[in-house]
Amino acid sequence: MRVSVPLIYLKEIPASDMISVLFVDDEPVLVDIGRLFLERVGNFSVTGVESAQKALEMLSEKPFDVIIADYQMPGMTGIDLLRIVRSQYGDIPFILFTGRGREDVARDAINIGANFYVQKGGDPKLQFADIAHKVETAVERRRALIAIKTSEQRFHDIINFLPDATFAINTDGSIIAWNREIERITNTRAEDMIGKWGFAHSIPFYGKRRPMIIDLLLHPDPAFEQIYPSLHREDGMITAEGVLFLNDKKHFFLARSSFLYGPDGKIAGAIESLRDITRQKESEEKLIRVFDHLPLGLQIFVMNKNGHLVCTGGNPASEEITGLGTRCSPGRPIEDVFPGEEGQRICAVSKKVAMEGGKDSIDNLEISLDGSKRHYNVRIFQTYPGEVALIYL
User: Fold this and answer.
1) Sheet holding 44-49, edge to edge
2) Which residue segment(s) compose the domain that 233 sits in?
3) Which of residues 153, 176, 209 is at a domain's end?
4) Are residues 167 and 272 in the same domain?
5) Mean pLDDT across the stretch 258-279?
6) What angle do CA 97, 100, 102 make, to 5 degrees?
7) pTM for this predicted structure
8) How far is CA 124 from CA 26, 72, 120, in A?
9) Domain tally for the chain?
10) Which residues are reported to carry the modification 4-aspartylphosphate (predicted)?
11) Does the structure show a pLDDT above 90 at 246?
């Protein structure tokens, strides 16, 4: 049965707040003794009522952190009250008072959902000291559970509103989150995915069970990683580009995966987001075609992580015009492409433009190649922060 819990009973209570207690017993003297003792020894605020019916009236008016109820009361027993509380007010802590020799009642109470039971009789101070301890224990447990549920709900809310398709798994590989965008692109509902395991998250994408980068983050597999030539690991994160066919259409995705951590700081799972970069890739392919057929010589240099400007390549015309094709091989420092005094000049200007932006030019640049010297007018401009293009005229 799905229990509908009023929101007032799911409030997250700061640890410093007073614990509100509803004490239910048909013996007014016992209620008064319990109120005096609990409020004296602990951070408790006790409301006493003399019947289960009055207790239900109080619960409908305001929330309580814990209920302490006698079992044997006229009209409605403590067990009956417990059943109603569990069906209408969820998991509010409940402690049942029983008479001695009523182990069957205690057993039923625990089975129905009582947090503790206490037998009446004996030294009242010892008895209420025990109750005070049980109250604090039950409330602390519930607060911790509410905090976890609140944290999980926030996590799911955040994931749901992310613009990228996003899902998460725990360390066992079970799916714990499947957001709205991933529902949209895969036509697969979250309720059909949550809790599934064994690479089930890959089926909507590949039609079969297989690792994705989220699995490679949790369980590295160097051999399998070869299918992702662009895969990159850094600071507990994996990024990779890939191609997926969704609804019979080819899509390019940039996938990112990182660890999820539990309250204890240990790895609890991983999360993966997939950004559709199809339009970007199509634009890049068009630019590459234009780049390759451009009648002007053009070379691209990019700043690497060591702060060196290195060549990423040039178009066919740059080789025909300059003859620098072998020099401007991918990854080669710009100083190797342009050695000598004139080279120092173009290196300095190119680095400045790559980092600061804008454009510059060097006219009548002399390039020595195979014993001969050639002269060019070079236009230099930033194509992206840390990246610069050289055009030869």
Assistant:
1) 44-49, 19-24, 66-70, 94-98, 116-119
2) 161-277
3) 153
4) yes
5) 88
6) 80
7) 0.51
8) 17, 19, 9
9) 3
10) 70
11) no
